[in-house]
Amino acid sequence: MTDEVDLQSLAVDRSASPQGTRGKRNLVTRYVIPGVLITGFFSLIGWCARDLIFEPRAVTVMPVVASDATVHSEGSPLFQAAGWIEPRPTPVRVTALAPGVVEQLLVVEDQAVRAGEPVAQLIKDDAQLAYDRALANLELRRAEFDEVQARLDAAILRFEQPVHLEAPLGESQAALATVDTALSNLPFELRRAEANHAAKKQDYESKVAASGVVAAVRIDIAKNDADAAAAMVEELRDRTESLRKQQTALTQRRDALRTQLELRADEIKARDAAAAMLKAAQARTNHATIAVAEAKLQLDRMTVTAPVDGRVFHLVAQPGSRIGSGMTQMPGHDGSTIVTLYQPDSLQIRVDVRFDDIPGVSTGQRVEIRNPVASEPMVGTVLFVSSEADIQKNTLEVKVAVPDSEVVLRPDMLMDCTFLASASHDP
Asked: Of 340, 345, 343, nearest to 402 (Cα)?
């Protein structure tokens, strides 16, 4: 069976659309929307140019000050904060003044020590050897000084008593006197020799004349005596010239020795040189003495002592640790710190105060301090407010002085602090 579909019944009659609806749509899109946009644009321009069109009015802005109108009487609590005991103003570092290796710690934590009491011992073998070497060098320098001193004394003695110059001068004067005597006696000896020669010659001639009577041997003897006498005369005549030359040489030698005795240049030079050497020896001795003192100081520094009275706070170094070198830096301490001390009669409290409570803190303000170890609360005073805040806790440190009391307080003990209002407190 076949069903027939009437397509005409599905057609839409478009001629039935009303004309009024189309006219309203055209009116909105053509006039209303553009008018709204233009009106808004000109309104925005007018709002921006209002200061040019209308003169602005001057006003005064007053800050709002918020204050606490609560009035506190003197001694009334303002706020509470927690604090910790710490040394005042800082812990005392006991440092090794010489590099070395810690051999033994002589104290324990919280032990009471006095100024000058040993707290640690460093290995001192090297320092002991250096001290012994310095002592040996000092003895050597002192021996050199004594030797130079003896040389100077001898030089001064030779200068003041120049017997070594006077003896040659005396010998030359004696020799010159001998020559002078011989030279002065020479004329007499010459005349005696001439007279002897004349006598010998006459005897020879007489014997020659009587040769027939006198034996030939006697004539020869007389001739020899005459010749010897003539030779003596010639010798004495020649001796005059040699004696004069010898006299001149001895005179020059005597004068030279006398001048040398008067000047004593070599002795002065030896004396001054010995004095200069003595000064150098004295300087070397002083240098060796200083070296001994330095070595002794280095040896003494192997024993580390406490600089003040107090109690041991922290043990920083350990036996076997190297102290004093640049590679031994530790957090919060330098490489030479052995222990830290604190003085029980000089303590303070580090109080963390919130920023909101800082206006209520003033220097000299009383603070009530409580701790379970104390049967009664203590009253301290504000020393100062720290200049650096803790950005993590939003607090500022306030230092509070701990009063003298019989309560046993130790660093890092937790304290409850109540800040009290003062007479000048103005909240």
From this structure: 345
